[in-house]
Write a structure and sequence with these properties.
Family: Belongs to the short-chain dehydrogenases/reductases (SDR) family.
Largest sheet: 6 strands, parallel
Protein name: Short-chain dehydrogenase
CATH topology of one domain: Rossmann fold
GO molecular function, one term: oxidoreductase activity
Number of strands: 6
Keywords: Oxidoreductase
Oligomer: single chain
InterPro entries: NAD(P)-bd_dom_sf (IPR036291), SDR_fam (IPR002347)
CATH class of one domain: Alpha Beta
Length: 232
């Protein structure tokens, strides 16, 4: 089928390998309108930035985040230069630091607007063993523990967006890498550098994303929808 065309059997658009972010945003423009969307990890030219750029053409408010204020400023300037319909609001947050996650969540909870969609996209680069400020393995802290806490803390903002016709969404950007790993509960609280495997740590974090998305949907009981996805 052609990209973005509607399937007669489902009445939903169908996409393929060649579909762009703009194609998807255009197909769902009516649903994106008047929405406030928060996307973590929006450095220039990354997945988060491209998502923000696409939805900003139709949304009411797009909140972009990053741990580096200067790089976040570059992304902010680029999005504004494109003349987006949405207000673009930067939010500095270091997801590896639970303390900073709490600070940023408090900032979001002080916003006047509700949050309709949260996209947990930010992730640490796969690399050498490193501990987060609170002593967790850094990949797990950045890719999962920080987003997990952030989601929980701003849940009131998400639930405030619920109406009779709209259910708020939480999206975790995961990976098919979870198929080759699991969660080692024995080392979560006591990471051992001697046992560290960078790709194993990545897969563990992505598995945790998927498990959390599934459980969040179950516990929300329809109050919000939670998804995990493989970006391709």
């Amino acid at each position: 089928m052609a990209v973005g065309k509607f399937s007669p059997s489902t009445m939903y658009p169908t996409f393929d390998f060649h579909t762009t972010a703009e194609d998807v945003a255009t197909a769902f423009a009516e649903q994106i309108q008047r929405k406030n969307i928060l996307i973590t990890g929006t450095s220039l030219n990354g997945l988060g930035f491209e998502t923000a750029r696409a939805v900003a053409k139709y949304a009411n408010l797009v909140i972009i985040t990053g741990y580096n204020k200067e790089r976040l400023g570059l992304a902010h300037a680029e999005l504004r230069k494109e003349g987006s319909h949405a207000e673009i609001r930067p939010l500095v947050i270091d997801l590896a630091s639970l303390k900073d996650v709490r600070r940023a969540a408090a900032e979001v909870n002080a916003y006047a607007e509700p949050i309709h969609v949260l996209v947990n996209n930010a992730a640490a680069a796969v690399g050498a063993f490193k501990l987060s400020p609170e002593g967790y393995e850094n990949q797990l802290a950045t890719d999962h523990l920080g987003p997990f806490l952030f989601t929980a803390l701003i849940a009131p903002k998400l639930l405030a967006a619920r109406t009779e016709t709209f259910t708020p969404r939480v999206v975790f950007v995961s990976s098919l890498g979870h198929e080759y790993g699991s969660v080692n509960f024995e080392t979560l609280g006591k990471p051992d550098p001697a046992l560290y495997d960078s790709m194993g740590a990545y897969r563990q974090a992505k598995t945790a994303n998927i498990l959390t998305a599934s459980e969040l949907s179950r516990r929300a009981k329809g109050a919000l929808k939670s998804y995990s996805l493989h970006p391709g």
